[in-house]
Each structure stands twice: as structure tokens, then as C-alpha cells.
Specification:
Structural class: alpha+beta
Number of helices: 10
Shape: elongated
Order of helices and strands: HHHHHHHEEEEHEEEHH
Strand order of the largest sheet: 1-4-5
Radius of gyration: 29 Å
């Protein structure tokens, strides 16, 4: 360990040796010995020092400096990873189980560990339960970076009802949403509502493409209601009777999603 770096970073944070010792749960003498090079902290204390001073382990463990000072340290890297994982993760698992799964399972990374490449690629925590919350979540109701469940919320979500940045489900809501019924900035499905809506049956959006398409720029095989004309956005009520009747006909479709019906009804209010 580079004792100069430890001393410098402690002073930058405004801690005296006594205050820093109390912060990490050791004696002032222990801190003094570390900074004078008489001893080195245990792995768990090294992790704690790194977190409290907001610097990396690599920054503190300066190999070139240690070689110059003829300091030889046996450093168990696997032990370090296990200690770091224990320190930087949170897990709760309820004792109550249903269908062989815990009722609630929470398991996620916290702190700076979330932003390290090794964690993103290898050490994401997985939660499996009826209600699952974690870096990766699998269950009935799930919340996570990567989420799979009947009701799923996440950065990447997969399930029956999904909400996420990237969302794939029967009912899908997200920035990019793909599903039977989808709502999003980019929405793709049998029915789609979005800025860009691409669908088989009904699409409503700024750009809409489907058999039945309603949008500022639209392309529909059966019904094509283009609201953008002459560089202006037209009201649906100013369209011809055929277009209005076509939209009214869509409203009687029992399979049309509720949100799309709400939007179409609002467009028909003149």
C-alpha cells in the first residue's frame, strides 16, 4: 500500500487519524502504523478504507511503490472478491415459500460496485421469488435491471405485463416496447401506440404503419388517416366522413387496448 496516498486521501476528506480510525472501527495506532508503513490493513478494512475515502483499491495498492519499499504482501484475490461481494451486496429472503419459491427475495449490488465492469459482466446478483427484486429478477412480480416475470419492471423486462426501457411482453410499455399491445416511444405489436407505432392491426402515432393507421404520417392498407397535411397537423374532426367512420368502427373492436381507445375517443371530441 502506498502510505503517502492513504495519508493524502485522509487529509483531503478532512479526517484526523483519530476520526478516521473511529470511522472504520480501528484504533488510532492502527491508522498510524498503516501510514508509517509498519503494517497493512486486513482485506475487509482495505475495502472499507476504499469506500470511505472514495478511491479504488488499485489506487491504494500501488505495486510499484511497494516494490521500491521492499514490501511483500500475500494478497488472496479470491478472498478479496468474496469480502468485497459481502460488503457491497444486500440480500433478504423470506422464510415463507410458495410453489417452492420464497415469497420475497431481494438480492442486489450497492455502492460503487454497481459501476465496475467486472460486476456488470460477471457478478450481477440474482433474485428468484414470488416477489423478486435484484440486479437480475425472476418470479411472478419482478423488479430489476434484467427482469423476467408475469408482471415485470426493469431496464430490460420480459413477461406478460412489462414496463421497461426495453420491454417485451403481452402488454408492453417502454421506450422500446414490443408486444401484442405495446405503448412506447417506439412501439411494435399487433396494436401499437407511440411516437413511432408499427403494428399489424391498429397503429396510432406520429408515424403510424399498420392495416389501420392514424398518425401525422401514416400508412394503412385498410384505413389510412393522415393528420399531417400542408405542413400542419389537422384535427381528426376535419377529416372526411369515411375517415371518421373508420375510426369509430375501430372503437367497437373489443380487442382494441383501453389506452388506444382513450386516445381515439379524445381525437373524436370536436
Amino acid at each position: 500500500m502506498n502510505i503517502n496516498k492513504l495519508r493524502e486521501e485522509r487529509k483531503k476528506k478532512g479526517y484526523s487519524q483519530e476520526e478516521f480510525a473511529n470511522l472504520i472501527g480501528v484504533s488510532r495506532q492502527a491508522v498510524s502504523k498503516w501510514e508509517s508503513g509498519q503494517s497493512l490493513p486486513e482485506v475487509d478494512k482495505l475495502i472499507l478504507i476504499s469506500n470511505k475515502l472514495d478511491v479504488s483499491i488499485d489506487y491504494l495498492m500501488d505495486n510499484e511503490y511497494m516494490e521500491e519499499q521492499n514490501v511483500k504482501v500475500k494478497f488472496d484475490y479470491e478472498d478479496f472478491l468474496n469480502q468485497e461481494k459481502k460488503f457491497n451486496t444486500y440480500e433478504y429472503k423470506s422464510k415463507t415459500e410458495l410453489f417452492g419459491m420464497p415469497l420475497i427475495h431481494i438480492n442486489f449490488s450497492k455502492g460503487r460496485i454497481m459501476f465496475r465492469r467486472s460486476i456488470i459482466l460477471r457478478d450481477l446478483q440474482t433474485a428468484k421469488g414470488i416477489i423478486a427484486i435484484g440486479d437480475r429478477a425472476i418470479g411472478i412480480m419482478t423488479v430489476g435491471l434484467f427482469s423476467i416475470g408475469f408482471i415485470s419492471l426493469g431496464l430490460f423486462s420480459l413477461g406478460l405485463v412489462t414496463l421497461g426501457v426495453f420491454s417485451l411482453g403481452l402488454l408492453s410499455y417502454g421506450m422500446i416496447a414490443i408486444g401484442y399491445s405495446s405503448i412506447g416511444i417506439i412501439a411494435i405489436g399487433w396494436h401499437a401506440l407511440g411516437v413511432v407505432a408499427l403494428a399489424k392491426d391498429v397503429a396510432v402515432g406520429v408515424v403510424a404503419v399498420a392495416d389501420n393507421a392514424i398518425g401525422v404520417a401514416s400508412s394503412g392498407a385498410s384505413l389510412d388517416v393522415m393528420l399531417g397535411k400542408n405542413n400542419e397537423i389537422q384535427s381528426l374532426c376535419t377529416m372526411n366522413d369515411e375517415a371518421i367512420k373508420g375510426v369509430q368502427g375501430l372503437l367497437v373492436d373489443k380487442n382494441l387496448p383501453f389506452m388506444i381507445k382513450v386516445v381515439l375517443k379524445s381525437m373524436l371530441k370536436c
